[in-house]
Amino acid sequence: MRITCVGGGPAGLYFAVLAKLTDPTREITVLERDRAGVTYGWGVVFWDDLLDDLFRYDPVSAARIWAAAYKWDEYEVRAAGKPVTHLGGYGFSLGRHKLLEILGERARELGVVVRYEDELTDPSALPPADLIVACDGAGSRLRDRHAEHFGAAVETGRNKYIWLGTPHVFRTFTFGFERTEAGWIWYHAYPFADGASTFIVECTPETWTGLGLGRLDSAAGNARLQEIFKNHLDGRPLDDAGRGWLNFRRVTAERWDHGNVVLMGDAAHTTHFAIGSGTKLAMQDAMALADAVADGFADSAALAAALEQYEHRRKVALAPLQRAAHASSAWFERMPEYAELPAKRFSYALSDRRGEYPAWRYLLHMSTQGTVPRTMLRWTLSARRWHRARRRPARHLSAAVPTG
Ligand SMILES: Cc1cc2nc3c(=O)[nH]c(=O)nc-3n(C[C@H](O)[C@H](O)[C@H](O)COP(=O)(O)OP(=O)(O)OC[C@H]3O[C@@H](n4cnc5c(N)ncnc54)[C@H](O)[C@@H]3O)c2cc1C
Predict the structure, then answer these.
(1) Ligand 1 center from residue 137 Cα (angstroms)
(2) What InterPro entries does its record include (predicted)?
(3) Domain count along the chain
């Protein structure tokens, strides 16, 4: 079977790995327009649920991801004019470039051909394949070529955001809010490597216009943000890697397959960064697609059935997360309405921005702000992290981590 993945992001590379693991005789090619090691964005966050899945599907790459991941152990909320508060929880983060390096290396080890600097410009020029996976991201050219068939739609978020990196290492996942003369502006930041943190800045369009951020070039814009967030960055610089300010684009598609072409990851659906799950969902798409075509397909009807099964399984799984992402991004669009709440109530509102928490979460939040209960909560959650890690297939852990 010949499979071509257009796009060497997390979805494309991970699907290539899984499809090759299922059947090593498959000829699998990944086309990626960027050079190896070059990518947009900074670190991404994820949680135990993704790690559990990764260890189940390919313990070798999972162990490398686990070993490389930065482990943080609570959320910190720093809002101007309020004392610092904390939210219970732990998670992981990893540089996007590191994740792609691990997946690219694993794919090549298994015999996948990864062709970097190979941009698909004319989809009709693709070499023949039994399955073409369109995993070319939110702006998918393959999807847009048949936009009507796929029923693709793009909804643009109201707030402005910019995805920055900084050498300042935040202690843990941090939300920071500053009040300016033009309104509130905030960031979502987390360390993802020694010497590097992701720093996503967001504000309403009114604040963005009022601060003149649209009129500033990259260097002046970064300098302006550094000044606004000087109390948070310890004097360290910000880098926008040339991407500039954006509005989040929520992509949906009514159908995910067209003949032997199937959408996967951001090409099929995007999920607002406020719940930090787009990479997870893209990789879980790859797992579901690999399962759906595991036994191969005798003809086009069998392929259509397999792709239908994949799409259905993923749409069912995505629905609650899409709702959560929508509620979460809407909270940030209304953020100024919450700004006058006292510190603990403000951070609780931030944590329950999906509006789903039972009452005991409020009581737990209020009672764990002091040093002793907070430390106990962190220890308890940390024990849970390591307990869960120990249940995963540990025999692969040391063997799989490349040395040097
Ligand atoms: C600000 C921000 C923060 C985020 N933070 C998180 C987070 O913390 N956690 C998380 O899980 N997710 C996060 N995400 C979402 C995550 O980045 C995406 O959901 C994820 O990268 C989707 O993976 P993908 O493989 O589907 O697409 P992509 O990662 O976009 O990969 C697509 C690949 O296709 C290539 N490509 C495109 N067109 C062509 C072409 N014509 N020919 C060849 N190659 C092509 C691109 O170069 C790219 O490498 C965030 C997103 C944003 C915007």
Answers:
(1) 5
(2) FAD-bd, FAD/NAD-bd_sf, PheA/TfdB_FAD_monoxygenase
(3) 1
Residue 377 lies in a domain: no
Residue 276 Cβ inside 6 Å of ligand 1? The answer reads yes
Does residue 390 form part of some domain? Answer: no
Q: By the 8 A CB rule, do 236 and 166 touch?
A: yes
The whole-number mean pLDDT for each consecutive block of 10 residues of the chain, a chain of 404 residues, reads 97 98 98 90 94 96 96 97 96 96 98 97 91 97 95 96 96 97 98 95 97 95 97 95 90 97 98 93 98 93 97 97 93 95 97 92 96 96 93 61 41
User: What pLDDT, on the 0 to 100 scale, is given for residue 97?
Assistant: 95
Is ligand 1 within 6 A of the CB of residue 227?
no
Do 59 and 393 form a contact (C-beta atoms < 8 A)? yes
> Is any ligand 1 atom within 6 A of the Cβ of residue 46?
yes
Is residue 368 included in any domain, yes or no? Answer: no
Say how many residues make up the chain.
404
Say if strands 261-263 and 173-180 run parallel, antiparallel, or are unpaired.
Answer: unpaired
- Full residue range of the structural domain in which residue 203 is found: 2-336
Does any domain span residue 358? no
Helices of type H across 69-204 = 96-109, 141-145, 147-150
Q: CATH number of the domain that 245 lies in?
A: 3.50.50.60
379 Cα to the center of ligand 1, angstroms: 34
